[in-house]
Specification:
There is one protein chain. The protein is built from 2 helices and no strands. The chain is 83% helix and 0% strand. The chain has one domain. The longest helix has 27 residues. By secondary structure, it is mainly α. The chain starts with a helix and ends in a 5-residue tail after the last helix. Helix 1 packs antiparallel against helix 2. This is DUF2909 domain-containing protein. Keywords: Membrane, Transmembrane, Transmembrane helix. Pfam families: DUF2909. It comes from Halomonas caseinilytica. InterPro entries: DUF2909 (IPR021313).
């Protein structure tokens, strides 16, 4: 159960980072580093989400 909650939280954080990056892009016109930092964070969260999903499937915590 903890794994499913953690996966959901990471996914929500990814969506929030996507929305923040879009807001920074519109507000700054892509001239600031905030868009780059948001992209880096989103890539790290995506890697974490993929690792959690693989762990869940191969560990048996997510069914299958």
């Amino acid at each position: 159960m903890f794994l499913k909650v953690l996966i959901a939280l990471v996914f929500v954080a990814m969506v929030a980072s996507l929305a923040a990056g879009a807001g920074f892009l519109l507000k700054d016109g892509g001239r600031s580093r905030r868009v780059l930092i948001s992209l880096k964070l989103r890539v790290c969260l995506a890697a974490l989400l993929l690792a959690l999903l693989l762990y869940g499937f191969y560990g048996g915590g997510l069914g299958g």
